[in-house]
Amino acid sequence: MNSTWSRFNITAVTLGLAFLYLPIVLLVIFSFNASKLVTVWGGFSTKWYVSLFHNQGLMDAAWVTIRVGLISASVATVLGTLGALALTRYTRFRGRMLFSGMIFAPLVMPDVITGLSLLLLFVAVGLDRGFYTVTLAHITFTMCFVAVVVQSRLVTFDRSLEEAAMDLGAPPVRTFFQITLPVIAPAIISGWMLAFTLSLDDLVVASFTSGPGATTLPMKIYSQVRLGVTPEINAACTILIGIVTAGVIAASIVNKRREVQRLRDEQAAQRG
């Protein structure tokens, strides 16, 4: 019975992973296709990557996407971390439930409703749609993801470390930057990476809040896909996959090194 279930589990996991990642693998492979037909292999070639970098429309959209992602992820990380600190450290204050609901609402809110709501807000305040409206929209819906990640780390944080530092004369601000921040830094980095990835991936919210000169890469790719997939789109998607993969690997390495260093410091403290 156990061997039967083991085979079933292995088969299910294999089929699930194949369903998720096989299309991505095929996309990467066909980005090196020499043929103009994306479904017919015509030999290995990198000419579509060269053609991609000469496609001014796609390059402008990619630059807008990267700028929006960097700015929105950085601001969302700061705001999400502050929100997580408020929810974790100040458990009793008037309006806490409302504050918590406002932070986590974008997690369960459909993207269409979020995008339409932000569009109506920008129109009501007379803010012209463009780069800054897309950035504000991305900050709004990515901040909650950062708050969830950081809050999960703060819940398990040992407050005695902060208390010991303050007993030794460190003020609260210095305690935060020298004790709390290094400990929760892996969660903050993970939250930033998640926010950046979500910003790169967003299509629906950006479609509602973008304007002239603020076309993101997902919007550009979607508009071209409706006319037919080209190998340049495969190349652009492959580069995005590479950027996200490299970022995830880099964040994992940094977190691993921090964890190893923390274990070494604890062992050294125990020996001392």
Give a written overview of the molecule.
With 272 residues, this protein is an all-alpha fold. Helices cover 80% and strands 0% of the residues.
Notable traits:
272 residues
Itemize the secondary structure elements and their pairings.
Elements: H1 2-30, H2 47-53, H3 56-89, H4 96-108, H5 111-124, H6 131-155, H7 159-167, H8 172-201, H9 204-209, H10 217-225, H11 231-271
Helix pairs in contact: 1-11, 2-11, 3-6, 3-8, 3-10, 4-6, 6-8, 7-8, 8-11
| Shape category | globular
Strand content: under 5%
**Estimated helix fraction:** over 70%
Radius of gyration (CA) equals 23 Å
* Alpha plus pi helix count: 11
In short:
The chain is mainly alpha-helical and 272 residues long.
